[in-house]
Write a structure and sequence with these properties.
Elements lengths: L6 E2 L5 H6 L5 E6 L4 H16 L4 E6 L4 H6 L7 E6 L2 E7 L4 H9 L3
Parallel strand pairs: 1-3, 2-3
Antiparallel strand pairs: 2-4, 4-5
Length: 108
């Protein structure tokens, strides 16, 4: 079951929810047809439930192409951590939970 703490972001709310967030935000750029994207979804749900230092957001690249294009997302899943309104770091591909946690921690 998807975590209620995971935010769905769109072209319309991206600036408010991600760039103006008071917490760092890890954005998962994904698509429904992407197997690795579906594979990491439960991991992101767990992190959203357990980690209060960062918000987890999902952006569907098929539906929200403007933001994906703006941040040059060319393959999915791509994960971009935004902090203080700017891109702090990015990584691509499915990862185990521990790798996500390290990625987040080194950017907080």
């Amino acid at each position: 079951m998807a975590s209620e703490k995971i935010l769905t972001v769109t072209d319309d709310n991206f600036e408010t929810e991600v760039l103006k967030s008071d917490k760092p935000v890890l954005v998962d750029f994904w698509a429904s047809w992407c197997g690795p994207c579906r594979a990491v979804a439960p991991v992101l749900d767990q992190i959203a439930e357990e980690n209060d230092k960062v918000r987890i957001a999902k952006l569907n690249v098929d539906e929200q192409q403007k933001i994906a294009y703006q941040f040059q997302v060319s393959s999915i899943p791509t994960f971009i951590l935004f902090k203080d309104g700017k891109m702090a770091d990015r990584t691509m591909g499915a990862m185990p939970k521990q790798a996500f946690e390290k990625f987040i921690e080194r950017n907080l």
